[in-house]
C-alpha cells in the first residue's frame, strides 16, 4: 500500500471522527472531543495521524483507557484535571478512533511501542504521571517498565489483567467474539455492568459513548487481532519501585470480589476502595476520583 493510500485511509478516519463528534449527546464528551489533536507519527506507523486529546498546562499526565473503549471514557474528570496538569489522552492502538491501517497486528507489544513513539513525538521524557483504567492499568504497568526513568507516579483505576497468563483466542473464534461484542444488546449490557447503579446512571448518553467508536473502519479486525494475541495478563510482574495507587469500586461487577482481594494484597500498591462505585471510578464518582488523583499527584 502506497503512502497516498495510507493518507486516504487516515483522512477517512478523521472524517468519521468529526461526524461522530458532532453527534455526541454528552456535553462533557463533546468538550473533550474538541481538544483532540491528530498527531502524525513516524514511518513505523506509516506516517499516519492518531487522535490524542491534549489540554491544560503543568506536569504531564497520560490517561490510558480500557478494553474496547476510547478517550471519551475520561470525559468526567478531564476538565478538572487540565486546570493543574497537561493532560494527554490517546486512543490506544487498535482501539477508539485510532487508524486501523497502521499495522496488521494489534497486541500489547504494539500498543506499548505506539505509546513510546507518541511520547517521543510529544517530547515528554520525565516527570510523567500515568492513570490507567481497567486494561489501561495493565498498559500503564508495562509502559512504566519500559520507560521507568520517565515515570513519576501511577494511578490504577480498577486495573484489569494484573494476574494470570495471556490466553489466545484462535481464528475463527476471535472474529466471532468481536462480532458478538458489536451487537447492540451486548454493548448495552456491558455498559450497564460497568456502573454500580445502572438504573439510575445509564442512559442514552452513556450507551452512545460506549459504542460510538464501533463505526471506525477495521474495528472488528483489530479487536479480533488483539483477542488472538491474548491481550494483557500477568502485568503485576512489571511493578517496580514507582509509587502506585489503586482505586477500585467496591461494587465492581467486572473485576469481581476475588480479583479485588488479590489487588489489595499486592505490597507495592496503595489501595483505596470506593463504596457505591462500579468498574469505572472516574465515571461513577468523578469528583471523588479527581480529588484522589490531584491529592496524590500534587503532594
TrEMBL record:
In which domain of life is the source organism classified? Bacteria
Question: In what residue span(s) does the AB hydrolase-1 domain sit?
Answer: 60-182
Instruction: Report the protein name in the record.
Output: Putative alpha/beta hydrolase
Give a yes or no for keyword Hydrolase in this entry: yes
One annotated GO molecular function is:
hydrolase activity
PANTHER family named in the record: ALPHA_BETA-HYDROLASES SUPERFAMILY PROTEIN, HYDROLASE
Q: Which InterPro entries match?
A: AB_hydrolase_1, AB_hydrolase_fold
What organism does the UniProt record list as the source? Prochlorococcus marinus str. GP2
Keywords from the UniProt entry = Hydrolase
